[in-house]
Amino acid sequence: MDDSEDLPISKSSSASTSKVNTKSNHTYSTPKNREMSISSFEYNFSNERRGIAIIIVNDQYQGSNKREGCEKDKQLLQTTFAQYGFEIRCFCDKKAADLIKELKNISKEDHSKSDCLVIAITAHGEEFRDKSVREDLIYTSDKIITTRLVLKLFSDSKCQSLIGKPRLVFIQACRGTKMDDGAQVKYRSSTTSLPQNSNDLIDCVHMRTDNSDMSDAVMEDDIQAQNTPTDTLDHNSDLLNSSTQVLNNQTQNLKLKTVEVSPFVNHAPCYKDFLVMYATPPGYYAFRRTTDGSWFIKSLCDVLNEESDSALNGRPTKNLLTVLTNVISRVAREMQSKSANKHFDAKKQSPVIYSRLTKDVFLTKKN
To answer: Model-level pTM?
Structure first.
């Protein structure tokens, strides 16, 4: 259990005035009880400031290949969150110690007059597995840090001025070396009669001949090499192979005992009032394009910009979880890799959301 688990959630005031439907005994929202409705079911986004958007961009790790397209990620993130009124704090190619120092300084600031906090990371990534331990890793310019460390710096116990406020985290990085081959989807329109046995492959959109899709993993050979790339988690491939063998042994034992138990007990960190969205599931690659940026960051920013434009009288029509589900759908259905390396060609990707939000988030523009 994390060190923020036992902190109490504040209750709405019993003095709030509202109308009650005596037939159903449920409170419903009217203009007069709008303030009560917001405090009960939505995070308060009417503070003096919107908050800080921390953007972490790591282009290169100890002489590895440059992450072509990460500059596009940076531009998209800065533009998108700036239009929502965030104060942008951008950290590019920082060494691990320097980055952690900057993040600690921000966590010590007073966020009491802010609506929320955003952290967006675009970097090389990997997973660490050994026995019962699994961690997501982020590559800085010189060392590797865990995503758990970054998130914990802004948990309730480490940053008390953010207690009760949403912390929204978006991470573009590989979480392993598995590939998603996808699956054919049979689609039939409710308004159009399709010929029998007609398949509309909706997972093949956005393929371009002038772009190669890259993965956000650090590998020993160039991504265009014909050999299957190998993971270089500080070159501890023996440790990873040993972990795989342990998994196989445990799986066999579980089958004999007919008991279903996950061999990995520590899940991706997600503290109270956090939403953490990864570009890809645990164990899988994450892709980016050299000219468009990463699939995930581009889709995220595109959808957020579209929602901002479609807001009615400044009020979003969808809560944030619904909006981010649209991001998952867009990446999963509309993106497919195009690469000269057959190992990376015609692959799919699906972002993942971990949420411990206690209320709805309606993200609006703020001057």
So the answer is: 0.73
